[in-house]
Design a protein that fits this description.
With 171 residues, the protein is mainly alpha-helical. It is 82% helix and 0% strand. The longest helix has 65 residues.
């Protein structure tokens, strides 16, 4: 047992020492908090850069897959060289071609962070589904309404892109 634990007069000494220690820690904690916040900010920047690099690598992989699929799609054109048109083969060809178009728009969306790119890919995906699938009338109506709403959103609610400003500025 320590002597200060038995002495009633000295029982406040550990408490005062603890208060002084906590006060010292709190003053230094402010400085360390600033350092920690700077380090967190830097780590957030690194994480953002790494995730952006990951998205670019994913875009490259998807683009390579699109290129290989596009080559095979071009090779499929040979079956349409003779004038015998098989509707099921053409539907498959159309589905593959439109899927490649959606894939290209997806790669553009990964590379360009704009709401306009997102709206474009959703419009293209809905249009692809409507063209390739043989939808019922009510499903087709919902698709047309969805595309109309997305076009309205693109026209009136999204900021104009620099490309569209240049087009409207020219007479």
């Amino acid at each position: 047992m320590h002597s200060y634990e038995n002495n009633p007069d000295s029982s406040g000494i550990p408490f005062l020492f603890m208060l002084y220690f906590l006060q010292f820690k709190l003053v230094n904690h402010k400085i360390s908090t600033e350092v920690i916040l700077k380090r967190l900010k830097k780590s957030h920047e690194y994480i953002y850069k790494i995730s952006h690099l990951g998205e670019l690598l994913l875009s490259i992989v998807i683009l390579l897959a699109i290129i290989f699929s596009g080559i095979s799609l071009i090779l499929e054109l040979r079956q349409f060289s003779n004038f015998q048109l098989d509707i099921s083969a053409f539907t498959k060809f159309l589905a593959n071609g439109l899927s490649l178009a959606v894939g290209i728009e997806f790669v553009k969306m990964l590379c360009k962070y704009t709401p306009e790119a997102l709206v474009e890919i959703v419009i293209l995906a809905i249009a692809r589904q409507m063209v390739v699938e043989h939808l019922q009338l009510d499903q087709m109506f919902i698709g047309v309404c969805a595309i109309a709403v997305l076009c309205i959103v693109r026209k009136y609610f999204l900021p104009p892109s620099p490309k569209s400003d240049k087009k409207t500025a020219q007479p």
